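Exercise 7b. Backbone tokens:
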């Protein structure tokens, strides 16, 4: 379900006022004509980039037309963009828009150029992203429950499956696996 623009504007105002308060500035002084940069640690044109652009558009009006720049700093599993924000001045003019994949980086990389627990401050959730399980039209199961039930019945026979390796999809795969266990 698509979020309404009103909720995006409410979030934009909350972010702007929260940033001003966090930096010690008076809310009426923020953003003081300075552009705000939203760093997206993924390539332009992807889903996170789209969310950032929609958020930027929703933030412009309540911030009196302040310029909001989207900076796509992709690479190294989002760590390049994350590090860029960790090194930025903590003045509220540089934000990071990322997803749950950030929680997996400490496990995937031995040495990060930032500490994800202390170098960032959680400001709020922008949206939630549903995950889907999709099969060919010929799949007899018809529902995820029937599919899980069928996979339990055929465990003795060799089967094949393809699983995505991106962190959110992996999380969805783990949830699916856990929900298909016999109770």
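Sequence design result:
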């Amino acid at each position: 379900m698509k979020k309404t623009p009103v909720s995006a504007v409410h979030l934009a105002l909350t972010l702007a006022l929260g940033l001003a308060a966090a930096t010690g500035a008076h809310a009426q002084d923020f953003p003081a004509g300075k552009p705000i940069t939203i760093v997206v640690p993924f390539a332009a044109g992807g889903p996170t980039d789209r969310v950032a652009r929609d958020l930027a558009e929703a933030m412009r009006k309540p911030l009196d037309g302040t310029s909001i720049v989207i900076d796509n700093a992709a690479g190294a599993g989002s760590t390049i963009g994350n590090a860029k924000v960790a090194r930025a001045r903590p003045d509220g003019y540089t934000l990071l828009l990322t997803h749950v994949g950030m929680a997996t980086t400490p496990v995937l990389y031995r040495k990060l150029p930032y500490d994800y627990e202390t170098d960032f401050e959680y400001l709020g959730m922008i949206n939630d992203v549903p995950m889907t399980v999709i099969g060919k039209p010929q799949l007899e199961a018809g529902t995820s429950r029937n599919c899980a039930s069928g996979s339990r019945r055929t465990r003795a026979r060799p089967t094949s499956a393809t699983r995505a390796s991106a962190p959110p999809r992996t999380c969805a795969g783990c949830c699916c696996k856990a929900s298909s266990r016999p109770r």
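Instructor comment: The chain has two domains: 5-108, 131-183. The beta strands are 36-40, 68-72, 94-96.
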